[in-house]
Amino acid sequence: MLALLAPLLRPGVHLMRRWRLAVKLTVVNAVSLTVVFGLAAFGAYQQFTQWRTTHQEITGVKQVNALMSLAHALQVQRLDTELASHSGQVPTIRPDLTVALSQSDQLLMQTGDDVLKKSWQTNLAELKRVSTATRGQLPDAYTQQIHAIRRLILTAGERSTLLLDPEPGPLFLILIALDRYLPWAESVAQLHSTTQSTEPDQQASALTAIQAQAMDIDHGLQDIEGLLAALSRGGEQPPAGWRAIQAQVEAYAKNRLSQAALNQSAPAQATAQECLQLLSSTKALEDLMLNRLEDLLRHRAQTQLHTIVAYGVAAVFTFVILTYLMTVLYIAIHGALRAMGHVIEAVAQGDLAHTRDVQGHDEFAAMGKQLRHMTDNLARMVSHIRSNAALLAMDSSFTDLALTITGATALTGNAVVDGKYDLKYT
Fold first, then answer.
1. How far is the CA of 78 from the CAs of 68, 190, 281, 330, 367, in angstroms?
2. Which of 80-84, 159-163, 296-300 shows the lowest mean pLDDT across its residues?
């Protein structure tokens, strides 16, 4: 295996052999930190992008809420206009319509999206005319502007990526609030307009129109009910007042349909008040859903910010840990190598008594023990050699002495034989 990888490993091994230990560890630490910081930066950037998208969605929720308030104010103003036309009075402009128009204009003109801003400016002039005119205003003009507001709501949802939200909880709330709720509430309001504008000679066609509108209301209820069931399966609770509003709307549609079938008509003021209460209830429920949606998005944005901070903390923690480990590793290896180097240098100079212990239980400590064992063996060998040399030296001295004595004895014996010594005994 190593033979196959040898061409790849050879340049690295060559560098490692040329670099000092500190350089090696620094390079390893730098490469590791580069990978860690790169991954952390990528993850943080992804979270930041999602956080920015979430804040864009929160802005979209505020825009939708303002437009829904404007649509509700137009529906109420249309009721007042219808009542005034039946009684022959001049309708008055409600203050909440002016306030809703001003708030919508402020929010939509502050947006950085040119498409949404252009769409709003296209409808703004007609909205201002409808919102300020008190004479000669037909209910159909309000209806047209409510449909235009619905298109603006869908545009705001698209441009703010609300309609592209991937999570099931916010997604179903978005579909209800942006796409289903206003047409359904408008069907309820239109049912009142149809029942009140019916002429005696148009009862048959009016009954057909009322039946169609009642069917639209029922289909809208079923559609919203299905989305709320999906919302429940996704882990979110449906809005608290939905069941009560559903029962009120069903009863209201049933009463209008039965009255039309029996060719009966209720007082305009009473039916208008009933319709106004329904519209107020539906608007309150819409506000509840939009507030819940904004809370979900704010919680998501907070979680994304925490994730970004976690990436940063993890990167810093990794930097500290890796730097610490590389530092202590350098100290441990360098200390072991320096201790063994001192021993080897002392042995090279002939000092076999010099020892340095390498602390620990790793390979360097084992090598230090083996080096000490080697010096101990060398010391014993040298000591044994010196002992043997001393013995040999002693043997050599005795041999020289014996030879001297032997030579002297021989000389003395020769002298006696030759008569050179006079031996006297006493």
1. 15, 10, 17, 82, 96
2. 80-84
Q: Are 176 and 227 in contact (CB under 8 A)?
A: yes
What distance in Å separates the CA atoms of residue 115 and residue 119, rounded to the nearest whole number? 6
What's the whole-number mean pLDDT along residues 225-236?
86
The pLDDT confidence band at residue 313, using thresholds 50, 70 and 90, is very high
pLDDT at 421: 44
pLDDT of residue 414: 52
Return d(Cα 384, Cα 144) in angstroms, integer.
117
The first and second tokens of residue 360, run together, are 């620990």
Distance between CA atoms of residues 184 and 71, nearest Å: 13
Weakest mean pLDDT among 23-32, 153-162, 261-270, 416-425: 416-425
In this prediction, residues 79-108 reach a mean pLDDT of: 78
Q: How high is the pLDDT of residue 423?
A: 41
The predicted structure's pLDDT at residue 47: 94
Rounded to two decimals, what is the model's pTM?
Answer: 0.75
Q: Say how far apart CA 363 and CA 59 lie, in whole Å.
A: 63
Residue type, 348: A
Widest CA span of the chain, in angstroms?
Answer: 191
| Mean pLDDT (whole number) for 124-142 | 73
Query: Using CA of residue 133, residue 139, residue 141, residue 146, what is the dihedral sign?
Result: positive
Contacts of 46 (CB under 8 A, 6+ apart): none
